[in-house]
Amino acid sequence: MMVDENDLLEVVNYDTIMRQQGYFVGYYGCTLAKNVVEEVKDKLGDNILVAKGMYIMLYVNGDSPVMIMSTVLEGLESLVSEDTCVIFDFIIDNNIPDENMEYEVLLSGIINSEN
Asked: pLDDT per residue over 2-59, tens digit each?
């Protein structure tokens, strides 16, 4: 993640997510906006249920409706426990088609219950 030295809030948010005890796992993808939540659920599996932190970065076209971003964020947030710290951000990238969305999801604080 590239962080500008003046972007204190983003550094603090990232630090909050990464300081969770346990290990972390992440996934990057690009799909139709309507498929993001199911794709993340499929790729990250049960890790979503036990994560203590979730960082979401969405890359969207500037012409994409805000409602689509909001729906995706709410859907991703609904996958985790209400105790999970969820932080999200987005970047405008006009090279992405309107109906698509690129995303990064980082889960942290995952404790393997089998150990």
From this structure: 444 444 445 456 566 666 667 778 899 999 999 999 999 999 999 998 888 898 999 9
Show the tokens assigned to 60.
Answer: 């969207």
The fold for domain 24-110 equals 60s Ribosomal Protein L30; Chain: A; (3.30.1330)
| Burial tier of 83 (Cβ tally within 10 Å: 0-12, 13-18, 19+) | exposed
The structure's pTM equals 0.76
> Which residue ranges make up each domain of the chain?
24-110
- From residue 109, how far is each of 17, 26, 27, 81 by CA, in Å? 8, 12, 15, 12
pLDDT at residue 110 in the model: 84
